[in-house]
Amino acid sequence: MLSAGLLGLVLLCDAQGLSAQERREGFRLLFNGRNLQGWKVYAGANWRVQNGELVGPKESAGWIGTTEEFDNFILRGEYWIDKGDTNESNSGVFFRAQKTATPWNDGYEMQISLQDERNPTGSIYNRVPTHLERMREIAPERQWNAFEIRACGSRIQITLNGEMVQDCDLHEFQRGVIGLQQHHAGVTVKYRNLRIKRLSPRECDEGWQPLFNGKDLTGWFATGIARWSVKDGAIVGEAGMGHLFTERTFADFELRAMIRIRPFRANSPMNPNNGIYFRAQPNPENRNNWPIGFEAQVYNHAGRGDYITGSLYNRVMASRLLTRDGEWFSMRIRAKGDHIQIFVNGQKVVDTRNGDFKSGHIAIQCHDPFTIIETRDIYWRPL
């Protein structure tokens, strides 16, 4: 039987949110559950501590942040939000944020809002959105929702209630404070069990290798009539049907990339359409025609029979549509033997077995003259 003192210590540790495993892994409390030590109000009214929770000021918009800065880390915590009589339950967790009045611009924000269609909960605000209906399923209002933010170099991953909703690359900010937002008066927002672990460069190295140098098309070759260029660190395809192939071939591998598609003009006669081919070869009958191989589809419109973004084209339909035109999203493809998995914004949308193609090139498609495709942060690793 535990003594009263030891039992109290165990209960305190549980209340503070650090598990024994986390302590072994090097996590520490970011909020002590008693006062605002280590935190500073950068804008708005004071936050308060109540029942071990960090509670936002209902009377004022603003934000509170750590006095300490972080670069590479894993941040874990829980939030609870209620819009009350207002129109939106809006808050957010800032990270790598600068100490300004606009940390959502001068840093990154994991958005919390189930009314904002453009930036729903789990979005990296104004940079990589999630899907509103899906987020309503994953993280409802007026309950405690667990989150994890993992920031390693440019790679940002966000998990909500055990489901990954972001797995993307961003390059604007490398270091800054952790912050919590009270977006507008009248909203009730609370945070608890905030803990953090700094990550070393070794812990961030997961064996990913760049497939695109961000400057030119060294290591790639083109077929078809599409025009390919490099602008602002992204490969841009436009002006007609064509494919840009890697010179090397791949068998068992994992690939990740950031992708954005948009129409070449506002009144375009077709929806943007694209894809990432893998284990592919130029068409042996006509190199300028569609390649032979697997295609991870990129198409952000869910019509009857349409293979939506993340689908294994002509084989397996993606489980849900998580993307929209004009916005960046991440795609990850994992191919080992006949096991094919496709992830969009960190969420698995295809998991199937297909042995049609064993090895081949990776290729970016420009589907038609009405689509502009941008692809950046292309990495791979062997399996």
General shape: elongated
Secondary-structure element pattern, one letter each: HHEEEEEEEEHEEEEEHEEEEEEEEEEEEE
Any idea what the CATH architecture of the largest domain is? Sandwich
**N/C terminus separation:** 49 Å
Number of helices: 4
CATH top level of the largest domain is Mainly Beta
Biggest beta sheet attributes: 8 strands, antiparallel
Number of domain modules: 2
What do we call the CATH topology of the largest domain?
Jelly Rolls
- CATH homologous superfamily name of the largest domain? Exo-inulinase, domain 1
The percent range for helix content is under 10%
Can you describe what's shown?
- With 383 residues, the protein is mostly beta strands.
- The protein folds into two domains: 16-204, Sandwich (Jelly Rolls), CATH 2.60.120; 209-382, Exo-inulinase, domain 1 (Jelly Rolls), CATH 2.60.120.
- It contains four helices and 26 strands.
- It has helices at residues 4-16, 20-25, 132-138, 201-204, and strands spanning 28-29, 39-43, 48-50, 53-55, 62-70, 73-82, 91-97, 108-112, 145-152, 155-160, 163-169, 176-182, 188-198, 209-210, 220-224, 227-231, 234-238, 242-246, 253-263, 274-281, 292-298, 329-336, 339-344, 347-353, 361-366, 371-382.
- The strands form four sheets. Strands 1, 3, 4, 6, 9, 10, 11 and 13 form an eight-stranded antiparallel sheet that branches. Strands 14, 16, 17, 19, 22, 23, 24 and 26 form an eight-stranded antiparallel sheet that branches. The protein has a five-stranded antiparallel sheet with strand order 2-5-12-7-8, with no helix packed on it.
- The longest helix is centred in the N-terminal third of the chain and has 13 residues, at 4-16.
- The termini are far apart.
